[in-house]
Input
Amino acid sequence: MEGYYSLKEIPNKGLCGLMDFVFTTGLVVGIDEIGYVGRYCYSDKEEAIKAFNEYTGEGDPTGPWIKYKGAGGERCKEQNCVNCHCKR
Output
């Protein structure tokens, strides 16, 4: 489980944590020894930390996440996203 930090169990999501990627910080859900179920990408690390600390496991986390990647495919938070290629 290299690269993850601030790990904690979140109800209905399993082991969760934060991980720094090249351009974003990910709020990562469902971490196990193989990988993870999904991640919410934040352009601002402080916003990711705040959302992680407040996340209850109900629905999507708060804050200005840009994109979800993982189980169920990719999706953007904004309805009219022009910065990604996810399906709406």
